[in-house]
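Hi support team,

I'm filing this because I wasn't sure whether my run with nicotinamide-adenine-dinucleotide finished correctly. The job status page said complete, but I'd like someone to confirm that the output block is well-formed before I use it downstream. Pasting the exact inputs I used:
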Amino acid sequence: MKVLITGGAGFLGQRLARKLLELGALTLEGRRQPITHIDLLDVVRNDSLDDPRVHCLTGDIADVQVLGQALDRDTAVVFHLAAVVSGQAEADFDLGMRINLDASRSLLESCRALGHGPRVVFTSSVAVYGGRLPDSVRDDTALNPQSSYGTQKAIAELLLADYTRRGFVDGRVLRLPTISVRPGRPNAAASSFASGIIREPLGGEAANCPVAADTRLWLLSPRRAVEALVAGCELDASAVADRRPINLPGISVSAGEMVQALREVAGDAVADRVSWQPDERIARIVGSWPGRWDCARAERLGLQGDGDFAAIVRAYIADDLECTKP
Ligand SMILES: NC(=O)c1ccc[n+]([C@@H]2O[C@H](COP(=O)([O-])OP(=O)(O)OC[C@H]3O[C@@H](n4cnc5c(N)ncnc54)[C@H](O)[C@@H]3O)[C@@H](O)[C@H]2O)c1
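And here is everything the job wrote out:
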């Protein structure tokens, strides 16, 4: 079986590819199917995976010819992760529309043209919600995005649902909480600080928190996020027939509680590297995202979140920080 990962050189794309290689197979509609081929499509080349099953395709997902090369009649599963992140989509309206929306529609059209209804797992975001929200947000809470990125994700979700209803694809929408702690450098996502305020102090650097200490975030560790992508893909179609989007089970933590967890795990000297200078633009975007969630449906479907934020910090130290030490 062939699997395509769009955004395959990205943070989650690389980790997902590694996880699929390790698993060696996916269970689809009760049948375990060996993964013989993983295509990683990205504008950036990813040579980090040395495995004969992995094939890198460097190209723009908005180019239909590139999509034509990336998909064929053996493609059974598409993980659609390629995107420009929230801050970038807000700063460059045309780019966000082209990659997050137009390319998503083109990808669905290309999948439709295959004729065999491949399974498509789409990574959406909590940014589809906003405005006046109920105390607890559920999968069926009305979408009301307050950013171009959230709008593009919301439209792509609806398209995936309709292409599924038509039988062109078998779609799954996983709404990801903010992934933290993300290794590497800061990126253009409005939520980038949610990793930076932990990662940078642990790496000996100062970090600024641009939102108020009581701003609540909805977080999931990279490890759990990748497990959820696989589990979401493997769900029987009947389990999501009524509603394709699933809010993944994150944990609700305030920025202040995050730094407090860092203090508990790594001590005062590390936590004191965090400063609190507000950034109006980031605070507005992040403040429009809900902080409390009802994830009963995800849990019923067997998708798992993390224990608490201190556990996420410890997992980052074990999985990423320790491995990068010389
Ligand atoms: N990480 C998070 O906190 C988070 C939260 C919610 C949703 N998501 C969603 O999950 C997905 C993966 O996120 P990530 O953190 O791995 O992001 P990432 O930025 O690390 O990866 C996205 C990848 O898409 C690629 N890409 C961008 N434009 C492209 C184009 N025109 N053609 C081909 N590839 C292109 C980028 O080069 C990048 O490698 C995205 O869809 C994102 O919106 C992530």
